[in-house]
Amino acid sequence: IQVLEMLGEIYRRNGNLDEAESVFNLAIKLADEMTKHRLMLHLGNIQFYRSKFEEALATYKTLLESDVIKNSKMLMATVLSNIGGVYHSFGKYHMAIDYFKRAMEIDKETGNTKGMGVRLNNIGSAYAEVGMFSEAEKYFRDALKIDEALGNREGELTKLGNLSSVLYHQGKKVEAMRILNEVIEELKKQKNHLGIAYYSVQMADYMVEENPDEALKLLRESEKHCLRYKLYGYLVPCYAILAYALKQKGNLRKAKKYVNMAEEYLSRTDNIEWNSVEVYFLFYKTTGDVEYLRMAYDNLVKTGEELDEGMKRVYYNVKLNREVLEEWRRIKQN
How many angstroms separate the CA atoms of 334 and 332, rounded? Predict the structure, then answer.
């Protein structure tokens, strides 16, 4: 069992998620009751990385009801946090924050400093999604301090990537790009293919309006890793931004081809590793098809309905969301 667990982790770190999932499923069948729950936690994480969010949620909720998890505060905090992560992916940010904060209370109680860093980062990510960027920045910087104190460089890179995003949305583009470039270069040294795939798309998103040629280079790099490691959830925003970059360069025919490819990969996942409103709005800006605008609007409203009144006001005032709402009203009036 121990060998299988180590093998599964090696596959996961190398981005071979199919093999990792198969190995953990085999190990679970052979394991005793105590070991099985630890392996199921690994399995849920693999399902999450592969954008199988419904399956991951079912795995985590099964764990939440088990006596093994109930008797371990550290494992309970991890499972609660992971459930929060799934709700975050579903756009249910209010619920996500609730689970993250429940997990953080346990971390405080047990003195789990590393766990607190993870939870602070997760809460910051949820606040960022609803447009509470200054609040998110505070959580990311607090999480970063913990990782720096612990010497957890892998954790630092995650927080730096998230910090870059909220700085960008606050208009601090130069600092955001400098930080993200530092993250990408270090991930390349580590040969962290999942990280390279994700953050290359993020950087391309920063520059697609002003420098579509450079954005295309980054997106081709991301595409290579996504296809090799079957990261379909990452391919959706990759192709959405790639299509828009091609449209910027006047190649509308090829741009529409990539919109279709993005839709194809979207159909293979429970959700996408990006803001669905932004993806559909990019489809609309690329093709001019009002149906994509309607989908962006519907996703925006659906997410807004899940938020409390305070968050909702902020969310609808985010620049992207304002653009979607204003364009939808313009189309409806005409």
Answer: 5
Residue ranges, the chain, pLDDT below 70: 269-273
What pLDDT, in 10s, does the model give residues 64-89? 888 888 888 999 999 999 999 999 98
Q: Can you give the C-alpha Rg of the chain in angstroms?
A: 20
Instruction: Report the chain's terminal Cα–Cα distance, integer Å.
Output: 64
The model carries a pTM of 0.81
Residues with Cβ within 8 Å of residue 238, at least 6 apart in sequence: 197, 201, 204, 219, 222, 223, 226, 262
